[in-house]
Amino acid sequence: MISLLFLLNASKNMAKVNFGNEPPFLDAANLESFSLTDSELSSYDGYHIHPSATNHQSDAMHSTNKCCTQPHDEIGNVFGDRFHGKKRLTQFPRELLVKIFKFFNVQTLFHIASVCKLFNNLVSSNLTWLAVAQLRFPELSVETLSTSSIPVQISKVNWRAYYLERLELEKPLPLIWKEVFYPRVIEPRYAHTGTVIEGNLYIIGGENSILSRFNDVHCLNLETSEITKCHTRNEIQLISRHQAIGYKESIYVFGGYDGVSNFNNLKKLDTVTQTWSIPKTSGQAPICRSNHGCVLLGHDVYIFGGNNQMSENDYQVLGDFYKLDLEAMRWEDYTDQHDGYIPSRRSGHRLVEIGGKIWMFGGGVWCKSAAAWKEKYNQVNVYDPVKRCWRLLEEEDNASVCTFSSCARMGFQLAVWGGQEMETNWTSSSFFTLDTITLRWRKWSIPNSPKCRDMGVLVAIGNHEMLLFGGNHGGPKDDWHVLQSSIDVLADVLYDKAKNRRKSVRRNEERQHFRSREGIA
Questions:
Q1: Lowest-confidence pick of 105-119, 180-194, 248-262, 441-455
Q2: Domain boundaries 175-485, CATH class
Q3: How far apart are CA 481 and CA 479, in angstroms?
Q4: Are 334 and 319 in contact (CB under 8 A)?
């Protein structure tokens, strides 16, 4: 039988790479906990793993270490066909291999993937990474995930990506703010939108006071850092407090406010021809509004709430819910298509898509006569478009901000920055993340944080990087800040190298076999 210590000695010789507060390599201190699971494996006759090793196996491994120069040589001796024990690890059932692999470090798993096709498939398996994540984070048990207030569809989560993200976020200073000094082409503003299309960020409209608004479009090339003003055809009206969605090569703008009234016409900007148009739609369109929430999910746009002011004395806060199919260009009222619960009416909230669901954060009810917030919300509501149902995330430790925060997706995290404080009327510079798997909030202390504000634009420019522009705090802002992250970059590089190393080993073996057959020295 293969010795577990024999396996451990090979893993200890892997190149050390820092993956944060990950458990150490499986060693003698872990053997007791590992052997406790042997009883679970009784159905695998002849495949038991024993925590005790024979002397000749340990000595053989020790002598092998002296002559090996590459980590994959050692792994090959243990895992591959060169091991002459009674049972090769390649002969173990896949279920048992998963139970073994979950005890190894990330870098060890990447090296194991280069040994053979079987191990590469297992290390690439979502089931393996779920087991690894559950060992490191006990709160990820199947029972906990399936019975939480927002049940997790375990098979649809990329557990490798989630595990690596969690490890990086536990490092000291995994996130850092950095001010970026782009050319000052765009006037200071707030209540604008930012939309990324094909590596370009488009800033549309906004305002710099209650009396002054914009209808211009600026484009920031995220690769060259060049900012240009787009000379669009068929200019639209002055607009702020609207929402914009990027789909294919176009940007769709809905709602907004010009200082007098709101809009409900849908506008489309073709970013190739830089032309505005009014697309034809069918179905019942939502009424006019501003300060609403809007998000793209697939080819569907979802809109919730906002406020409607058609005249000085006609003001209302909305709680309706609509969907626009951008392929069929058809509106559909989803307000009453839900499973019993729907969030209360609100404005100043944000909608973000994560994991195929819509996450709505914050908002409030504005009282126009008192010029103050009547209600403020810092809860999260989640909409499942498959089940067509809303769920309220009932957590006590929510973010301490509420209205006009800047929100974006950061991997599996709902990122929330700035906005108005729950307990005061002051704006904030705090940064929060909600883990959409464990449903736990975290407040961050990040160096070089931008000054407090609300109504700024926060857009994801990478899976874990975000760009902030503008906002309002005692006046409009025109500064740029990027939130940089170290998440998953090193891990992806190592994973690719492991696959390339396996191919290189095969080529060398084939070359050596050919030279031996041909009698070439």
A1: 105-119
A2: mainly beta
A3: 7
A4: no
